[in-house]
Amino acid sequence: MGMKWEWWRETPFSVKLLLSTSFMMNMGFYALIPYLTLYLTGSIGWTLAMAGIVLSVRQFSQQGLAFLGGVIADAFGYKGAMFLGLGVRAVGFAMFAFCTETWHFFVAAILSGLGGALFEPACSAAYAIITPEAIRKEVFSLRNVLGNIAVVGSQIVGTALSAIDFTYISLFAGAVFGVNTIVIFFFFPPIRATNTRHSIWESMSTVVKDKLFVRYTFILMGYYYLNMQVFLTIPLFVENVTHSKVNVGIVLSALSLFVILFQMKVTQLLEGYPQRLTLIGIGTLFMSVGLFLFTFADSLWLILLDVFLFALGTMIAVPNLVDVVPRFAPKDLVGAYYGFNGYSIAIGGSFGQVAGGWVYDVGLRLQTPWLPWTICLVIGFWVAWMLHRMEQQTGQIGNDLKKIARS
Is pLDDT at 10 greater than 50 in this prediction? Predict the structure, then answer.
């Protein structure tokens, strides 16, 4: 291997436990969510728009309430918030198996989202707090790799189970979260609630008043706009160009495979580069160039080449994306900061799915296939420029930023 894995020895047991639960969570989540759409539009006979509403209700009840979830985690402890959130999601996911009425699906979706709102910020904050700062980037990189391995694995599980019956996928996903709930309860050490000074209201207003962090969260909406194209316009585009559903699977698997193979290498190469915000910008720019080049892609090979550029962009951006948040946050509000940062996914991601799909259709109608991809390129440049400027204004992100955030 020849890779520097010394940091793995310095990684506390509790972080290794978190990495394994993250892996399982991704496995359960991605085994269910893609097939839920197929189930709702196929077996249940809903329109795609209606299925989209259920998915966005889940996403919004998660990302919209994550800020509150993070504040609760800071106040009452990360272990408790994770335990509760994982349990609620286990119930929500398993419930999809037994839904018969329309409103049942919405209840299951809201429970699934609510569970995420509780455990996601707590989980991110726990990572940031118990991982020694020197190895944080490596740990976040490994989490990204494991997440992608889980995505590939979940497709195999999802395809196999959907061949039998959707009920089994739903129960499998619920069971995965159920097992995680038990693991966290028995094996995860309690991390003391760090926020004993602020009320929930004060915590929220502290984050909102942190102008720099609010700006960072706003700029990241552009990153998530690009990121969400993986779930929507990229599969559509691949099918339109290659006239094959199989190729959609090949392209999405290749995307994960690139990350699995090269993420740790990329992180290692960029180790000595301290400008985190600029790196996120460069990564976003790579993603947008990869998307823009779809304009000229007329074969599977060219698409794969573009997807590699897109994947490279995520490999540069993702470890820094998660690592930057705790640098803004006072020690006792890390959960609240991660929760608030979720709005960049909630708004940027939802907009990316809705507007991305709409612009793609418009491009086809007006016979300007370059339109959606050019918009992606513009967004990439904007994010890179804004983050670079922000970095220059704050000096090197790190100690200076901590001072600014606290003042």
Answer: yes
Tokens of 353: 């799915």
Within a 10 A sphere around the Cβ of 17, how many other Cβ atoms? Answer: 17
Tell me the average pLDDT across 2-15. Answer: 77
| Per-residue pLDDT at 404 | 44
Distance separating alpha carbons of residues 39 and 107, to the nearest angstrom: 17
Q: How far is CA 68 from CA 139, 164, 206, 310, 332, in A?
A: 26, 39, 13, 32, 15
Q: What is the pLDDT of residues 173-183, one digit of tens each?
A: 999 999 999 99
pTM here is 0.82
pLDDT of 162 > 80? The answer is no
* 3-state secondary structure string across the chain: CCCCCHHHHHCCHHHHHHHHHHHHHHHHHHHHHHHHHHHHHCCCCCCHHHHHHHHHHHHHHHHCCHHHHHHHHHHHCHHHHHHHHHHHHHHHHHHHHHCCCHHHHHHHHHHHHHHHHHHHHHHHHHHHHHCCHHHHHHHHHHHHHHHHHHHHHHHHHHHHHHHHCHHHHHHHHHHHHHHHHHHHHHHCCCCCCCCCCCCHHHHHHHHHHCHHHHHHHHHHHHHHHHHHHHHCHHHHHHHHHHCCHHHHHHHHHHHHHHHHHHHHHHHHHCCCCCCHHHHHHHHHHHHHHHHHHHHHCCCHHHHHHHHHHHHHHHHHHHHHHHHHHHHHCCHHHHHHHHHHHHHHHHHHHHHHHHHHHHHHHHHHHCCCCCHHHHHHHHHHHHHHHHHHHHHHHHCCCCHHHHHHHHC
More confident residue, 161 or 292: 292
CA distance 276 to 332: 22
Q: Are 310 and 255 in contact (CB under 8 A)?
A: yes
Burial of 223 (0-12, 13-18, 19+ CB in 10 A): buried
Residue 216: its pLDDT value, please?
94
Spatial neighbors of 263 by CB under 8 A, at least 6 apart, are 141, 142, 144, 145, 148, 315, 319
Domains of the chain: 1-194 (1.20.1250.20), 200-407 (1.20.1250.20)
For 196-237, what is each residue's pLDDT tens digit?
A: 666 778 888 888 899 999 999 999 999 999 998 887 788 878
